[in-house]
Amino acid sequence: MDLLSRKATCNSHGQDSSYFLGWEEYEKNPYDVVKNPHGIIQMGLAENQLCFDILESWLIQNPDAASFKRDGQSIFRELALFQDYHGLSYFKNALADFMSENRQNRVSFDSNNLVLTAGATSANETLMFCLANPGDAFLLPTPYYPGFDRDLKWRTGVEIVPIQCSSSNGFRITELALEEAYEQAKKLNLNVKGILITNPSNPLGTTTTQTELNILFEFISKNKNIHLVSDEIYSGTAFSSSEFISVMEILKNNHLENTDVFNRVHIVYSLSKDLGLPGFRVGAIYSNDKDVISAATKMSSFGLVSSQTQYLLSSLLSDKKFTKKYLRENQSRLKNRQRMLVTGLEAIGIGCLKSNAGLFCWVDMRHLLSSKTFEAEMELWKKIVYEVKLNISPGSSCHCEEPGWFRVCFANMSEETLKLALKRLKNFVDNGILTRSCQVGQSLKSSRKKTTMTTVSNWVFRLSFHDRDAEER
Amino acid sequence: MSLDKNLLSKLAVGDKHGEDSPYFDGWKAYDNNPFHPEHNPQGVIQMGLAENQLCSDLIKDWIKANPHASICTAEGIDGFSDIAVFQDYHGLKQFRQAIAAFMERARGGRVRFEEERVVMSGGATGANETLMFCLADRGDAFLVPTPYYAAFDRDLSWRTGVRIIPVECNSSNNFQVTKQALESAYLNAQETGIKIKGLILANPSNPLGTSLGRETLQTLMDFINDKQIHLVCDEIYAATVFAEPGFISVAEMIQEMDHVNRDLIHIVYSLSKDMGLPGFRVGVVYSYNDAVVTCARRMSSFGLVSSQTQSFLAAMLSDQSFVDNFLKEVSKRVAKRHLIFTEGLKEMGVSCLRSNAGLFVLMDLRQMLRDQTFESEMALWRIIIDKVKINISPGSSFHCSEPGWFRVCFANMDEDTLQTALQRMKSFVLRHRENKKKRKSFQENLKLSFSSKMYDEHVRSPRLLSPHSPLVRT
């Protein structure tokens, strides 16, 4: 007899994917500068650890917030008992304001349209439960966050149909790709309930362009039964606020407030990336549709935000001096860190997709593949995890249509660790070239010649890449 | 402007969340007019909320004495960044250890819990739903003895599509679940092609306030083992047991009943009732089935406990002397409240189901019903809310098979408010008795003043009493 449910025995939680396997390898042999300097450096985890000092100093200066006190009076009991799924109003107000600030107040958010959830993980799943029936589909541009397979599909029974994006145009969403995805869903007899984008994108690290947003909005204006969900969890990681365009802005700028489109656009948010607080499980759904808010609010019972945490963060986010400073510093530090990774990779002859946001780069290692296949990508990935000792995320785990792309995170470690990671990668690439050059018949044993050889190898290497490319075409 | 309903899911537009039930109506009445001893002494007293407000002073004192427990104080700040990024769904090891230890102490140290089996969830609400997702497919069913916690309809069924098959229990044996009732419910389901995946119940029971005796537990375990179906025990009220037979957990029974397949046994726990911390959303799934632990743990991503809270509780619950004193006090204070309330009701001739646990009693108001129907129960309930201004929960909202039972909570207020509530009940009960006497004597006088022929003609005819007479309305 089947003792467990199908959900328990299947693997649509997606946790057998390489994305998670890399984590497992890291767990077995984690890098530590003192205790395990040869361990695996975690570059597969999109965490923001760059601004803890700012948070910590605020906490020290504001002891009441953490000790269940307001104006010196204990409100412990009030917080301990507070389980209203509408959430602490002063927290929601502060969160709504913070979201506006993240968009340079070009739009404002109404806290009555916010539903608090246990992280964006829960927000995304809840939205699926509210907008789609089992067997319905959502269209997602590839590559996308691997966790979506679990969050959107697993317990909801919703299907994902990919909108295929390619490197030929920087992985931008095109009208053609969108139409093709829609047709594909129809072929599979799936009822499309919506489109879900991540803006800024994970894993690309790019903000969605005005052109792309126009395409999406035109599509949902035409197809009146389709929702648009914009996961804006990385909104605060855009290096320049002016380059990030939220779907809320499109609604406002295009005067869509009195149209049905207004009710079909929803935002997911969280403090896990912008504030670097994934442990606190603070997510939110924002919608202009009162029925969605009503249903989502009820469902939030299954994953409310701890009142202790709501209270602490309401104080933090209400401090406008803090939020202004934090947002500014965060952007600047992320930008610098990204620069460090990009230039470091460039020096090794590795390019990245030009990015302007996120906690990672979308790195082009196609030239390091032994063949233009996903098997070769896996081969390369295993080498990087086991030999180079870097855990990075292979593009296939993000459902990328082309092999050879990898997501590499840069904000979850110190500068020294990042430098070390780049050094290891450089050694690997150099040795890889040396090996290839050996095969071409050149002797490269002398270390004195190493620098010269590296320059030569780079030249040799580039040549051979192009040759290979031409052959395959 | 609102969307065409077809644009949302069936879940979103349906009412299977159960929040249109009268259980929540009373809450709404309270929200609109909440009692406050100074600001609103005529307001509605909330006795429909099973909260434990009796021991928060103990926790507050501990917090004051242990500033290091918070990652946000000067004493604890060093741990801040590590905790803030910690989102591993295994949960903090110290937290799991502390929870396992707390659960053991709450069972008098008679059982051992392994911290690797402690899985987090968004409160017991999340735990119960998660277990359904793990154990049953859409359309499968779970047996649930009545009366049961009103929100089970939402937690077990709403998003999971799992059906609830009620197993009727009656006041004739104090609502104890019997083998016969279980077998009968199981057979009926089978005959209609419904696949029963398990049995779920709360022990101690909500709304009964009783804990299961050894014999009943044996019956239940033999039953599920015989059918090879799951047993989920929601032990959320474990520490509120204050009298015989004491709390016997299914964890204890497993130790004695070797022949029972452990893969079928699962416990749900939470700190919301025993510790009075519902706001912190600390739910636990504890399963003896490895595959369920793995699956539930993956699903816990949808409702992890805030690491700030995990860290705080890890510190507090590792303090064994605090825990032992706390558990002793919970039991003592609940017992005291229970006594005050039941004695107060007894004085006015109102009895309750005999209970030894929980934060409430099941009050027997069958005598006050106009007739033994649920319509009368609803009518009486409306009066209690609107006129007596007490929010209590009608038995029908717990799927009780007999009308006239009401769950009344006593641990979510101070003693003075409880006394006020008793006063109001007393006035109401006495008034009701008076009115009943008057009605009875009026009817009897009516009998005497008419000749037998006219009595036959008139009294039996409903036209005798004007439909608008206040004596007709209950």
UniProtKB/TrEMBL annotation, chain A:
PROSITE patterns: AA_TRANSFER_CLASS_1. Gene3D superfamilies: Aspartate Aminotransferase, domain 1, Type I PLP-dependent aspartate aminotransferase-like (Major domain). The keyword Plastid does not apply. Keywords: Ethylene biosynthesis, Fruit ripening, Lyase, Pyridoxal phosphate, S-adenosyl-L-methionine. It catalyses: S-adenosyl-L-methionine = 1-aminocyclopropane-1-carboxylate + S-methyl-5'-thioadenosine + H(+). InterPro entries: Aminotransferase_I/II_large, Ethylene_sulfur-biosynth, NHTrfase_class1_PyrdxlP-BS, PyrdxlP-dep_Trfase, PyrdxlP-dep_Trfase_major, PyrdxlP-dep_Trfase_small. GO terms for biological process: ethylene biosynthetic process; fruit ripening. SUPFAM superfamilies: PLP-dependent transferases. Its cofactor is pyridoxal 5'-phosphate. 1-aminocyclopropane-1-carboxylate synthase (ACS) enzymes catalyze the conversion of S-adenosyl-L-methionine (SAM) into 1-aminocyclopropane-1-carboxylate (ACC), a direct precursor of ethylene. Belongs to the class-I pyridoxal-phosphate-dependent aminotransferase family. This is 1-aminocyclopropane-1-carboxylate synthase. The gene is LOC108852226.
TrEMBL record, chain B:
CDD domains: AAT_like. One of its GO terms (molecular function) is 1-aminocyclopropane-1-carboxylate synthase activity. The keyword NADP does not apply. Pfam families: Aminotran_1_2. PANTHER family: 1-AMINOCYCLOPROPANE-1-CARBOXYLATE SYNTHASE-LIKE PROTEIN 1, BIFUNCTIONAL ASPARTATE AMINOTRANSFERASE AND GLUTAMATE/ASPARTATE-PREPHENATE AMINOTRANSFERASE-RELATED. Belongs to the class-I pyridoxal-phosphate-dependent aminotransferase family. This is 1-aminocyclopropane-1-carboxylate synthase-like protein 1. It comes from Raphanus sativus (Radish). The gene is LOC108861871.
